[in-house]
Every structure is written in structure tokens, then in C-alpha cells.
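Project standup — Tuesday

K.O.: blocked on the structure for the chain from last sprint. Re-posting the sequence here as requested.
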Amino acid sequence: MAVADCRVRSFTVLPGRLPPPLLDPVAQAAGTLASKRPRQALLSGAHNPFGRASRLLDAWRFLALCESAALLDAVAALAGPDLVLWDSELYLDAAGWREARRIEGRYWPADPLAGVVVDVALGDATVLLSVVDRAQAAPEPAPGAHYVIRYMPATSRFNRDLRFGPNRLLMEEQPLVNYANRPIWLVRGEDRAGSDFATGFASMAPGWAADPALGNAGL
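H.V.: unblocked you, prediction finished:
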């Protein structure tokens, strides 16, 4: 992994391809959901078996990709050996990811802000990694669906305080998404900042507000 290349160009591309047993179930889920067009908030936390997305897709398959050595080795080269998986989101088209990427980092509860964004383009299977504060400078998203995974170094604390700036902004601007009550995974190394790894490991932790789309869908 070319760390210097990432620092100069703001991004780097994972060499080779992800193993089909990891990538194919995610791509197939995106294809199935494309015709249903669920609300984007329901696809936030796609890897979380205890969240809303698990009612629409097999979150364990997404989690397996997030925890794979193929990705973690690359992320560790950029963020260090101690890694926390805290979010992922499925975007069913490039336009959705392009719009979200414009404000990447705005809602991150990493304190201090640090981390790596992994963009898995499900159409051509390329994987692009960028540091969070420079994700907007990455190349134009490839056509098709994208699975975006967010990691932070365990030297930053996952701040669950609702008064913390990013959490407050999220509550105001994206009321159907709540990062503060979600589970996080220590996927490599040790916790260096005293993050809470107990919260969120229960079915359907409450969100900021009820989503009528769930009721309309019978969920």
C-alpha cells in the first residue's frame, strides 16, 4: 500500500480484486435493493446486524467484508495498527455517494477527527481508500452502486456525547440516523482512547426519530 501516494494524491487504489466470496453477496444485495429504492437512512450501518439495515439485507455478509484482512491490511497502512470499524453505508448509485462525499467527515464522531474511507465500487470491483479529511478530492465515483466503509484509528475516541458537535449536527440534519447509539468494532489492535464498545449490541437500538418508511414497508 503506497502511503506516500495517498498523502500526495489524497487517495490510493487497492491492488488486485477482493475475493468473490466477500464481494459478490454485497453486490447481489445492492442489485436486489436497486429496484426497491429504500430510503437512504435505512442503508446506513449496513454491516450492523442489530440495526435497521439488517431488515433489508444480510448484515453479516457486509460485516465479513469490513473485517476482511484484504481491507484491514490496507487501512492499517494508512491509519495505524489499532482500528475501529464504526460505520458503513450502501449507496445504490454513484450520484448518492457523490452527494454524501461532499460533506464526508461532517458527522464523524471520531475525537479527534481521523480515519480512512474505503469506497468499494460494486460495478467494477475497484476499491479506493482515502483519508477522511481529503475524501472529497478522490476521483469521480464509478458508475453503479458503492459500498462505503468508515474506519477510525483507535487512538481517537468514539464520542457518544449528544452534545458533541458532529452528533448535534447529525441530529439536526439527518434525524433518522444516530451514530451515538450504534455498536462499534475493534477490528485490529487495541483501544487506545477509552471508547465504549458495549453500547448498541442489541436489536434495533432507538433512533432519533421514527421512520414512517419502515411502517409503510411492514418493517
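K.O.: great, moving the ticket to review. The chain has a mean pLDDT of 90. The chain has one domain: 3-197.
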